Amino acid sequence: MKKDFGDSISNKVYEYRVLARLSQQELAEQVGVSKQTIFVMEKGNYVPTLLLAFRIAKFFNVDVNDIFTYEKGNDSDDV
User: Fold this and answer.
1) Residue 8: enclosing H or E segment and its boundaries?
2) How far is CA 48 from the centre of its chain?
3) What does each C-alpha distance from 37 to 11, 46, 54, 68 come to in angstroms?
4) Measuring CA to CA, which residue among 56, 44, 54, 51 is closest to residue 11?
5) In this predicted model, which residue has the larger pLDDT, 19 or 76?
6) For the chain, which residues make up each domain, given as ranges?
7) ∠ CA 51-38-43, rounded to 5°
8) How confident is the model at residue 77 (pLDDT cuts 50, 70, 90)?
């Protein structure tokens, strides 16, 4: 059975995209995904693969940690 650690990844894709004056479609084309992928990622309903996270960071010329933030859950067992 898969254990749920409660961890999550938040992102600032929306903020970076708006500052760059890009539509969701334009960003999607630049990083090789669909507009829907950008949409659900901005809403926090999709955690991108590492490859996509690095593509997005590279596109905006920032470190991946500037856009994506790991948030540890409240799991009672230390792993």
Assistant:
1) strand 8-11
2) 5
3) 13, 8, 15, 15
4) 44
5) 19
6) 8-71
7) 115
8) low
Q: What is the mean pLDDT of residues 42-65?
A: 97
Q: Is the dihedral of CA 64, 51, 70, 23 positive or negative?
A: positive
Q: Which CATH architecture has domain 8-71?
A: Orthogonal Bundle (1.10)
Residue type, 9: I
Provide the token pair at 27: 């960003």
Q: pLDDT (tens digit, 9 = 90+) per residue, 3-23? A: 778 889 999 999 999 999 999
Q: How far apart are the C-alpha atoms of 46 and 37, rounded to whole Å?
A: 8
Half-sphere exposure of 28 (CA within 13 A, CB side): 13
Whose tokens are 């708006």? That residue is 18
